[in-house]
Amino acid sequence: MQAESESVTPNSTKEEVDGMPTHRVSTAGHGNEFIILGNRKYYRHELMTAFAGNFNPERYAPYPVHQFGNASALSLSGFGISAFCLGLYYAGAMGIKTSAVAVSLCVMYGGLVQLLGGVWELAIGNSFAGCAFTSFGAFWIATGCTSIPAFGIAAAYADDPAMFANAQGFYLLGWMIFSFLLLMLVLKATWPFVALLTSLTTTFAVLAAANFTGKPNVLTAGGVICVITAFFGWYCAWAGVANKQNSYFTPLDLTVPIFGKSVS
């Protein structure tokens, strides 16, 4: 349900950053039981805090007006299994040389389902999750399309495999930069957030290097890191649905400490 709030004195005001309004965050009351966001005061229990399980890196944020199921857990599940299978393929596990099964996951679960989950998150106002999941949903679909002959992507480079490898390297390098930008937005959130996006950024970097260098050992390393990333994604997905009513184990609140001056 939407958090109930009450107005506070005018000295808790909005600031502007690059012309856009933002809110100062402060505390009040005995034991700091109140959180003040801009000109509104909330009890701590009325606010969400940074949590990888719902892919929201905000230190404090009111609950969304519209209450739906946790689409972030669904998107993270699709991400996890797609990264797991594709990573094992890149790592050369069990001598598998054809990526057809991994491609099917890329397009449908990691791609389409994650894309829809991102749209769902946008509908409830979680811009970070919406941006991340719609983008990575598109990534998985695009990655799958590269390996589907009907799209003719690989065939376009049939006469120059080295050009194809370099093109894929640039493609992965772009996603590495995007993942790094997301990583910069979770450094005040939780450690699972940081671990997931650090591992994902590293995965893209190593796979890009594998395409640029053509060295099988680098590709294998990228596949292994991709598998590790999948487990971080699965942990965040589990954290989004596990509670005391359905699980003997619940996720720890591993909030990253804020260094320096605490600001909005």
UniProtKB/TrEMBL annotation:
The transmembrane residues are 71-91, 98-117, 137-158, 170-187, 193-212, 219-241
**Compositional bias annotation for Polar residues:** 1-12
Q: What is its main location?
A: membrane
State where the protein is found: Membrane
Q: Which keywords has UniProt assigned to this entry?
A: Membrane, Transmembrane, Transmembrane helix
MF annotations from Gene Ontology: acetate transmembrane transporter activity
Q: What is this protein called?
A: Ammonia transport outward protein 2
What cellular component GO annotations does this protein have? plasma membrane
Q: Which domain of life is it from?
A: Eukaryota
InterPro entries from the xrefs? AceTr, Gpr1/Fun34/SatP-like
Task: Tell me the membrane topology, using the record's own terms.
Answer: Multi-pass membrane protein
> Upper lineage ranks?
Eukaryota, Fungi, Dikarya, Ascomycota, Saccharomycotina
Chain residue ranges for the region called Disordered: 1-26
Q: Which Pfam families does this UniProt record tie to the protein?
A: Gpr1_Fun34_YaaH
Question: Could you say which protein family the record assigns here?
Answer: Belongs to the acetate uptake transporter (AceTr) (TC 2.A.96) family.
Q: Which residues form a coiled coil?
A: none
